[in-house]
Amino acid sequence: MHIPTVISLLALTAPIFAGSAIIQNLCSDTIYSWSVASNVSAQHTITPYSSYSEPLHTDPISGGIALKVSLVEDGLVKNAPLVILAYAWNATAPSIYYDLSSVFGEPFKGKNLRVMTMSGGRSDCPTLEWIGGSKPDNAGTAACFKDTDLTLTVCY
């Protein structure tokens, strides 16, 4: 076997770190979430002081993923107020772009929200923070250029 062939085979079998998208519920109420892209996942029920996670991934049609969170069961189809953690992940770079927004109101008004990345026990990338549950005037899209987990913490 030639050396280039061995290297090619190793490249095919080497694991690629794929972080997770995590929703951490520190509220005293149950929250509900959906993973939305060209398809919509089933509703995920996140009880108080627990979390939901899924591997970071891309959508073959839209490219991005939106994790939509509500205080209302079936809130996605009831047009209830939602907080949306949207991200676009590129495994080969590696890089992730992420944003926090809301629609139909502010479901976590009066509570704090934070989006942060975590890699190897450290967060070296921008943190998005909504004190009191409202989007700050200077909020925008953040970027991180490393393998990382992406965590939305509600009611911290």
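That was protein one. Protein two is written in the same sequence-then-structure order:
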Amino acid sequence: MSTQVPTPLYAKFPVPGIYPIDTEPEEPTPKKPEGGLMSKLDRLLGPWSTTQRQPSPTPTSSATTNNPESAPGAVESVPQSEEPSDPTLLRILSWNIWFERLFKEERTSALIAIIKSLSPLPDVCCFQECTSGFESQLLGDDWWMETWAMTKCKDQFAVTRSHYGTMVFVRRGLVGEMGFKARAWFEPFETTQTGRGLLVLELTPPRSKHPVGGTNSPSSRNSLTLEPSIYQLLIGTSHLDYTPEIRAAQFASSISTLSAAPASVFCGDTNIDTYPELEPLLSAGYADSWLDTHPDFANSPNLREVGVTFGIAGLRQGGSPIGSEGPPRRLDYVMARGMKVKGCGLVGGELIPREKWATAPEEQKLDFEVYVSDHLGVLADVELA
């Protein structure tokens, strides 16, 4: 088993974007003017372009067969608990927040409100399909910036040349009050169709016997020098490609990187076609956090079609999703190794009230249902050994 991440990955592809707690965030990126509502609808309803996500292959059986929760808006309840004070307890949220620009500001505002309502708050948020416009809106939200330290889109885009990617957010109290140390980096996949990679967050709890190298000064947090250490916890998030053979290589690369820590999490949008694609993670000791806490579904014929996260939200018209194909399915996972999963639920199944998005006369005539994203988020509570 590997005990450290190869130095060249730090030196060549850094993402030094975890904001120091005592530093003011950067000014938001100016927003680009967007087209009118109908032009955006034409793009959403029209054929898929080369810059949009390709629809996942249609599975062979219906998602509603074994999944009573697959009706629109039906969401597994999220466990509520007291604010954790033990640094071995962590709450992790993974969510593909959908790069689509239609109602993007309204959907982002709803996302912030949903996360703000969670009790306790997540300690780490891992988002996929993040854009510079999304980042700008977060930078302009006082509560968000007071609560979260975050990686930067531009650092990753400089490597991938993509128009959307992944971001990691760390609750500031985890570092400032509870004494965790945190830093992040990005590892592009050697094999990828669309500039994908693994965004890694390194967390060292305050009582760890194996702290990361260096001090807790702002300069050392963003250091590109890898000092020998054994990491206490690595959290990797990704948005995998659309071809099974390529995904297999990306799973293998992620496992190799995350095996540097005695405890690690792999999370994100996997785009898997069948549940057996997760076998490399399962064989490496990763537990499916949703299935681990919902054992009644363990014998379902297709585990990708229970606890579905895609195909029941997004934008819907007449009860049917717009811009996605195939039945509902589970594409989003939080997989944990070296820790105990204490709870797992899904978030984001609430409709955004019409008055929050139908602000123009032409919008008020639309027979739409609007959700935060075309994916639900996966919220997992884990306990470090």
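The domain at 87-384 is CATH 3.60.10.10 (Deoxyribonuclease I; Chain A). Keep this in mind for the problem set.
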